[in-house]
Amino acid sequence: MKMDTVKTGLVKTNIVKTMMAMITTSLLSLPAVASDAYGDPFKGGGFVKNDWQVACDNTLTCRAAGYSDESAERRASILMTLKAGEEVPSTEVLLSHWDRYSSDGGTATPADAFKQPIELWLNDKFYGNVAPVSDDSEVSELTQSQTVQLVNHANTNSKIVFKLGEHQWQVSDKGLSAVLLKIDDVQGRVGTPLALVSKNHASKQTPKSAKPRPIIRKAPAYSDEEHKQLSPSRLTYFQENIDQWVGIDAEELIGSEEVMGECELVNPKTKTHQMMSEYGSVFDWAFIPVDAEHTLASHLCWRGAYNEASGYWLIDHQHPHQPQLITTAATDYSQGRIFASHKSRGLGDCWSMAAWVWNGETFVKELEQTSGLCRLIDLGGAWVIPTYTSEVIEADKR
Fold it and tell me: Which pTM value belongs to this model?
């Protein structure tokens, strides 16, 4: 599973739920985007149109990913990354893992084919070889001139093909112009020389500058190796009072899908809790010391066919009756970090991830990202596509 700068197991905010929210174009004067487009470029899987998506993070860096048609026998994906103010995106290409390796360890495409350079073809015209990022990488990278040619084909029907000898992979052009227009809109490129597809548009924007990543100073927390435990008296005190402290009847936890999602399993009165209890499921609180003055209280929130998530509340020992809810989407905690990592479907070819880091007072969101659309490109997903990123200064590096 691919990760961002934190290479541990990370978040989920159910990608399916977050990607289905409808969005309209923010500038009504821009060319209309077809009504079957959906999603917010700053949330979840981003803005999606046909076989392309675009997601932008809090620094105003946008990433557009395109995929082969879902009916294609061979599949590939393109990722274009463009920072605010830059002229040309950096562009990567990934051929499907399943085209390279079959389930029995052999190759679905003859091994000799992968010894040849990948070729880029646009509308049956050869545009040069695509070089691998490194000798041991399956990801290849387009040159700047190749990327410019790809962008120049966005406003016309285009056949985008990558070839290895007689074998070829076609990436759909359906949705390409829509997501590039969305980047123009988000980064203030419309009607300017920096525009990808809307240079000549009558509505001229002011190009936006890149924003700095937030800096988080991670505070010391107990390590996993310390195996810290609460004293018996404090553990008993927390266990006896936690249901009253967290307000298990609160609307934000029961039946709400806003921000972090439902946590019906925290309340024995809900139908979900009662139904799962009938099958022998037991739902207890767990308490994890963070440092000498803080403890995390966790409880299972929901469970599905191939995912589950817990809620985490931060207890300040000086004010234990006011726990702070951090997330209801967590899957793990380790050494000052809360992680959430979820499959978007059982095949595991697409994930959503997030993390929160301890700063000595609370847990601050560190990152939020997905691995792209569910298109059978790679194990754990094709790409790292964040909507939130930060710079963490580790406690031992101050």
Answer: 0.86
Average pLDDT over residues 251-278: 71
pLDDT at residue 274, as a whole number: 85
Give the tokens for residue 392: 């963490």
Tens digits of per-residue pLDDT, 54-79? 999 999 999 999 999 999 999 999 99
